[in-house]
Protein 1
Amino acid sequence: MFYYHIALLKSPLSPLTYQSEQTLPLGTIVEVTLSKRTTQGVVIAEVEKPSFECETISLTCKPFYPSKTLELARFIAEYYVCSLGEALSLFVPYASNALHVNETITIEITLSTEQQKAYDFIEAHPTSLLFGDTGSGKTEIYMKLFEQSINEGKQAIFLLPEIGLTPQMKNRLKHHFGTHVAIWHSKISAKKKEQILSDLSEGKISIIAGTRSALFLPLQHLGLIVVDEEHDESYKSGNRPRYNAKDLALLFGQKIGCKVLLGSATPTLGSFHKIPTFRLKGTFFESQSHIMYDDGEHGLSFKMTQAIQKALNAKKQVIVFLPTRANFKYITCKSCGANVECPFCSVGMSIHHNMNALKCHYCNYTEVIPKICPKCGCEEIVATRMGTAEVSQKLSEHFSEHVVQQFDRDEVRTEKKLSEILSDFNEHKIDIMVGTQMLSKGHDYHGVGLAVILGVDALLGMSDFRSREKTLALVLQIAGRAGRKGYGEVLIQSKNSEFFKQYLSDFEQFLKDELVFRKNLYPPFKKMLRLMSAHVKDEKAKELIDKVALIAQSFPQVEVVGFGKANISKIANKYRYELLARSDSSKALLEFAHAVKLLHVEADIDPLSFS
Ligand SMILES: Nc1ncnc2c1ncn2[C@@H]1O[C@H](COP(=O)(O)OP(=O)(O)OP(=O)(O)O)[C@@H](O)[C@H]1O
Ligand SMILES: [Zn+2]
């Protein structure tokens, strides 16, 4: 009889011991029973006969995890504080009979002299950062790298924040690489996924373009990972394991020996600080942009409608950005000052006029818009902080001859609708597009003459040490959608125009100044860890975080920055508390995280969100 440690897939449990009559290679996927239920696990180690009775492995499966994957999963389990089974579950296993086909291809792109310099720099560095302005032509450089990768008989992964949002990118890839490229994201159908996996194992696919989960596909000849828009927070998983695909790409690069390229017009401070950087300046096409400010109250101002009118007169298109969905973010009582809150979350609910309802954006709870303040009974309650639906409506009324389109998650619910809107926009069937963050995601349209940016002061004022970096990056990305070819204007509504004036034309200077500000306090100089407790009973959640704080005392190298109620102290009826810790030593921080083995407490290493 042989004995093995089995990591149970998708289970938070530590590996368990099972027996087998035949020897099994490490990485074999097996079926075992646990409390009378059949479940899948992975053979991770052969062990001595244990002193207790153990159950027999019931079945072995064909697909398997190679030793490299086991090694990467071990790192993920250690670093992101999860079980090995959970870490392995991220990966798609390998088929046993994978083939490889060598092909050569030529694509029709000629790089400019500057682009070629960037390309040579990337070729010369195993890991690099392409810090290229919006519209500078980063994408074309990636395409050339993919061409080279195919011609070397290697495979490449092209990570994008939300490929679903950019059908344009899909078209560019398909145009150059045809069936050599496959698109992968969590919303493609199971059937389609199966087809891609089968094509992969037959060696038909050389490039996988997709969201963060694409990193875990079985690629035997991986030679290159490109992480586009590396600053984008959607690379970080919001669930356990809370990994960051960008950081994992860098790790995979080291462990597998493949090349890694990060690209962005607004790189994160961490990447800029650590990684050899090529600076690609200016736009590929001749273009010129003019930035204007409006320091009025939040809402549509005369200056704004004038600027829009001017762009429309010049037959240009306009994009209007706001960080808020719905008609209004809050409904506020004039007497007691309170926002009407969700009964299950400690957040104000938003007004959606099309449903005549108040809706919670955290748990989706919906109720009728009240006529009086539920707290004090006062009859004067007013809507505050305009959202996309309201601005769209106002602009449609004001510019009734023109087509206005709302562009956010409420309006764009399917991929079909998304491509329709974007292709209408491309064909200039839409004059004004009003949207949320979705507007900032790498769209390349040549007709946009004006970008209007609203509501950024609220983002700048968030209690997050990264709020300056995040807000500036967002504004730059949106501004970068205007005037990609020819003349473009940007109008920013803000009372912080000094800040934007100083840095919008020089993000690099911002990064340098920010490094000074973060020194000795925050990443990239310190490591951070956030521990969160959540429970239906308030006192239980608090008790848990108190326990965590007590455990922290045994780790002298770990500094507790603070602990107590989370920013949003209740979501979906669960009370939330948090502890924020930092350290110079990654090792000490992880030891502390692993020492906190409490049910209902979750660890988030290198946290990006503090809400
Ligand atoms: N070498 C080239 N030959 C022809 N067209 C190019 C070349 N490089 C860039 N372009 C064109 O310039 C425009 C901007 O390039 P691209 O979209 O690659 O910029 P980007 O750096 O990815 O921008 P962003 O950061 O805003 O997404 C595109 O329309 C692209 O097709
Ligand atoms: Zn709610």
Protein 2
Amino acid sequence: MIQAINLQKEYNGTTVLNLPELSIEKGEVFGLVGNNGAGKTTFFSLLLDLIRATRGKVIINEIPVAKSEDWKEQVSAYIDESFTIGYLTPDEYFNFIGELRNLNTTDVKAFLEKFADFFKDEIVGKKKYIRDLSKGNQKKVGVVGAFMGNPEVIILDEPFANLDPSSQYQLRNMIKEIGKQKDKTILISSHDLDHVADVCSRIVILEKGEIVRDVQKTESTLAELEEFFTGVKKETSFIDEL
Ligand SMILES: Nc1ncnc2c1ncn2[C@@H]1O[C@H](COP(=O)(O)OP(=O)(O)OP(=O)(O)O)[C@@H](O)[C@H]1O
């Protein structure tokens, strides 16, 4: 379980995240949606101890993240801003992550073979540095790296951004597949309600650092969220009337 308790982050005296109490249970596929600057990356960065909270704390499986490193074995993440392993090729990167996750090179190879369609022959076995790949391919490397070694908690910041539609579709299916395992917890941030609605069991909307909606996914909650985001109430469509 992941808990944020009275978690606040300020920059220059301005509060950008304020979560009095948030718990994410094991088995949840948790979608975090919000406009630019809402605080999504800040929240994930606090969870991963990449930045320090102004107040409050994060606890992952009973371990306070700012006080111990033991939670790191259970958690894997892709965060755009901190994905700076530019001077490695994808193969070097995957082997590096494999070592951290106690996989040997044969395990890593077998794992990567499962992603052949997703990589479309553009990533594995190539001599290009990650920094020289297209944005979408960089994202694929980062996201697949986060899946390596069967972590219990997977945190993905904007995993769908920059991917082409077929890759988005494939990634949705991968997340759904992993999300079926009851011992996994997956956290995803996105601007795109469609992706989040497709893969997540719970959806939270963040606005100016505060939670303004927190719902389990059902047909009616999806309509409500769509209305919240677009400001448009879903009427019977022209097509429905034909
Ligand atoms: N290092 C920093 N210094 C000052 N302000 C910051 C810093 N990092 C983030 N912020 C501010 O915190 C707020 C939340 O930013 P954050 O990146 O978490 O939003 P986000 O929801 O991930 O946005 P986006 O969808 O645009 O990626 C924004 O107002 C941002 O300007």
